[in-house]
Amino acid sequence: MIKLYYHPSPNPAKVALFLEEAGQPYEVVTVDTKKGEQHLPEFLAINPNAKTPALVDGDATIFDSNAILLYLAEKTGKFLPENTPAARGQMLSWLMFVATGIGPYSGQSVHFRHVAPEPKTYALNRYDFEAWRHWKLIDAQLAKHRFMLGDTYTLVDMAVWGWARVVPYVTGNPQCWEQLPNVKRLLDEINTHPAAQRVEALKTAHAYKADMDDDARKALFPQNARLAQA
Ligand SMILES: N[C@@H](CCC(=O)N[C@@H](CS)C(=O)NCC(=O)O)C(=O)O
After folding, report:
1. Which end of the chain is more exposed for a tag (fewer CB within 10 A), N or C?
2. 52-68 confidence digits (pLDDT tens)
3. How does DSSP classify residue 9?
4. Pocket probe mutation, ligand 1, options 5, 11, 17, 165, max atoms within 8 Å of Cβ
5. Residue 87 Cα, ligand 1 centroid: separation in angstroms?
6. What percentage of the chain reaches a pLDDT higher than 90?
7. What kind of fold does domain 85-192 have according to CATH?
8. Sheet of strand 2-6, all strands in order from the earlier edge strand to the far edge
């Protein structure tokens, strides 16, 4: 049975969506990141990067959400575009765009908007600008086609969905969908899938620490220990 090392946040959620959409049996292993479980030696043996998600499938261990999506798509033969150089090129481009742009810029926007202390104007402006720029590119792609790669629902749509769910929080703008109508259309469509609803239910199927107390801050933002020593 596949083991999915999970916390109910954007990167793990996209992998759970794939498993659910593919009807692939899996077991959830919770990693409570506010309790610091991502730093435990047994988890670091699976993902030395100390982040969720990670996946163990027999003797295969995979970390990084977009690598896991590609692994699962290749394993199952599901949710891939047609096997031509042109289609595969687009798939890899947009998947890596999500991995290297959408995820990191959205994540840093969340950090500087909602967590970082003042002064943060410069950093927040940079990450907010880049997050918007990346989301506008996704929106423009979705203005051309029903899905990211054309008429077919693929792993790239699932990668986008993970972060699309939290764009109002990323941008600090509840009206953000007026500027990203095509992203909203995709989000709403995927949210109607029973698979997406089962992923939503994972939030409450297991207990996770909610308090952002000092221990949680130490686990999630270990870089701050250097400031205390300075
Ligand atoms: N590039 C990684 C990023 C993973 C990541 O940042 N995961 C977050 C949840 S969305 C996490 O585990 N955070 C805990 C921490 O930073 O300590 C991926 O796409 O899987």
Report:
1. C
2. 999 999 999 999 999 99
3. S
4. 11
5. 28
6. 99
7. Glutathione S-transferase Yfyf (Class Pi); Chain A, domain 2 (1.20.1050)
8. 26-30, 2-6, 54-57, 60-63
pLDDT of 118-140, one tens digit each? Answer: 999 999 999 999 999 999 999 99
Average pLDDT, the chain: 97
Is the domain defined by 2-78+197-225 classed in CATH 3.40.30.10?
yes
pLDDT over threshold 80, residue 230:
no
Across-strand partners of 60?
57
Cα separation, 224 vs 6, whole angstroms: 25
Would you place residue 215 in the very low, low, confident or very high pLDDT band (cuts 50, 70, 90)? very high
Query: How far, in Å, CA of 36 to CA of 223, rounded?
Result: 14
CA of 90 to the centre of ligand 1 (A): 25
CA of 118 to the centre of ligand 1 (A): 24
Residue extents of the structural domains in the chain: 2-78+197-225, 85-192
- State the distance from the centre of ligand 1 to the C-alpha of 11, rounded, in angstroms: 6
